[in-house]
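Below is how a single chain appears once it has passed through the pipeline. First comes the sequence as given, then the structure the pipeline wrote out for it. We keep one example in the README because the format questions we get most often are answered faster by looking than by reading.
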Amino acid sequence: MENCAACGRAAAGAAVESVHPTSEGLVRYRRCSCGRRWVEVATLVLDRRSVTAPRGV
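Resulting structure:
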């Protein structure tokens, strides 16, 4: 979401009320200054180059 569906303000300016890790990534609960709430799901992507395999594998 780029803008609040109720008032059109930028979603980036909305306050994050809470963040919770899930199997899908992070779930963020946000509240716009107009009072509207929404949920965002941020999926986590690991860069293979940043992970080192254990020896012997």
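The chain has no helices and three strands.

See the next section for the split statistics.
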